[in-house]
Amino acid sequence: MQRKEAKGGILFVDRAYHLIPMQKSDDKDYGLEALEEMMSVMDNGKVVVILTGYSEPMKCVITSNEGFCRHVTKFFTFDDFMTEDLAKILHLKMNNQTEGSLLYGFKLDPSCTVESVENLIKTVTSDKQRKKMNAGLVDRLLVNARENLDLRLSFDCADTDELLMITIEDLKNELR
Predict the structure, then answer these.
(1) What is the mean pLDDT of the chain?
(2) Which helix (H) or strand (E) holds 62?
(3) Nearest in space to 68 (alpha carbons), one of 56, 53, 78, 58
(4) Mean pLDDT over residues 26-38, rounded?
(5) Cα–Cα distance measured from residue 46 to residue 69, given in angstroms and rounded to the nearest whole number
(6) Which of 35, 50, 140, 144 has its CA 20 to 30 A from that of 90?
(7) pLDDT, tens digit, for every residue of 92-131?
(8) Which residues, 6 or more positions from 49, have their beta carbon under 8 angstroms from its beta carbon?
(9) Does residue 7 have a pLDDT over 60?
(10) CB distance 167 to 120 below 8 Å
């Protein structure tokens, strides 16, 4: 992105910790160069820069350059999602699909209530797994549940509803 394009706007960098090399190397590192460029844009105050990422790796970003920590003035920390939140996110994603999305047209079986999905996530995943994946767990669950649906159905299935219905078992098979 050109600096001119960002003027008067917002520069949003998701997973900003990927800008910092995990280990020293002789190769040219453009991530650190990008941070330098961000600092110069932040100096003039015409662009709002939002950096996101997990707390620990983001500490490395902030301390990667002595001047960078002076430019970052606000920090927001969000708790990881609880199992109920994850179940609600799953329902929101399924109920608000847009044409062209991977699961467009698919529906959740009535047995996939928020409570049953929450219970499934709670009993089949570990705290560590949920913390590591957070809301990404929902995306993985849904994509793989669709694959499980494909495996579950027989070739001669003619019921259109059944062809598009994700069951609790489809979700459960993913979590094993």
Answers:
(1) 82
(2) helix 55-63
(3) 58
(4) 74
(5) 18
(6) 50
(7) 999 998 898 888 888 999 999 999 999 999 998 888 888 8
(8) 10, 11, 13, 38, 41, 42
(9) no
(10) no
DSSP secondary structure of 110-176: TT--HHHHHHHHHHHS-HHHHHHHTTHHHHHHHHHHHHHHHHHS-TT---HHHHTEE-HHHHHHHH-
Span 127-153, average pLDDT: 85
Going 163 to 169 to 173 to 174, the CA torsion angle's sign is: positive
104 CB-contact burial (10 Å; exposed 0-12 / middle 13-18 / buried 19+):
exposed
Burial-class residue 8 by CB neighbours within 10 Å (0-12, 13-18, 19+): exposed
> What is the per-residue burial (b if ≥16 Cβ within 10 Å, else e) of 126-151?
eeeebeebbeebbeebbeebbebbee
Q: What share of the chain has pLDDT > 70, as a percent?
A: 85
pLDDT of residue 129: 87
Please return the burial class of 98, using the count of CB atoms within 10 Å of its CB with bins 0-12, 13-18 and 19+: exposed
Tracing tokens 């929101």 back to the chain, one arrives at: 92
